[in-house]
Amino acid sequence: MSGPGTSLATSDGLGWRTVSASLCADxxxxxxFVAPAGPDLTMVLVVAGRYTIESRAGAARYRPGSVAVNxxxxxxxxxxxxxGTQTLRSFHxxxxxxxxxxxxxxxxxxxxxxxxxxxxxxxxxxxxxxxFALHRALGAGAAGLYADTVAGALLTHLVHTGLRVRPDQxxxxxDAGPLSRRELxxxxxxxxxxxxxxxxxxxxxxxxxxxxFHFLRMFARSTGLTPYRYLTRERMRHGAxxxxxxxxxxxxxxxxxxxxxxxxFSAAFRxxxxxxxxxxxx
Length: 282
Fold this sequence. Notes:
The protein is of the alpha+beta class.
């Protein structure tokens, strides 16, 4: 939930690699603000003042220690008013999409249910205390090692508690084996035919004709990789082939590989091959 407040401090230049932070002074009254949907995840901590915030999801009262989460792909429309005389301050922590999906991979969790992380108000002492620690770290100009370590644990906790499959959802009661050769071939063929599209876990599970909760484990047992990592690898291989055998621009290749921008494609390509697309082509 990125807001319209005035930035007082940011983590720019501090060497924070996996997360970015800002401290904001917020207006006492806000008639309406639209935070557009984006690929990143944002957490907001109230550090001073009291608000009453209204959104499509309802209304919530905020005070120091209150936490909100804006999930990727979710547009937020909200308004607020101050319920006290103290100046309003909020601390914003943004996790890039690549960091979020890497965490999901490390936890062997699905990538298609991220809207479940969205929360107008989240009562979680661990999140609140960790965000306060990062707020203090920003004020002290802490080095990236500290900030990235705390932020990584914070994100892992949020994803684990927000997306873990409960027994009543049918995801953990059965020990799912690997996909059959035919099922795996159908899924891989579907991936290759749609490398430039925004493929969702639900789609792949439907191709294999199994539930998405079983699909993740079945695919990993069949290939040794999560679907997201496998798809990323195939997109990078496709991109490498286009770099070698075509005159398409990096932006055009990025789109063909399912990336909205050349910068995101380049970052993924460098993680895979250790060099930039331009250097690979040359």
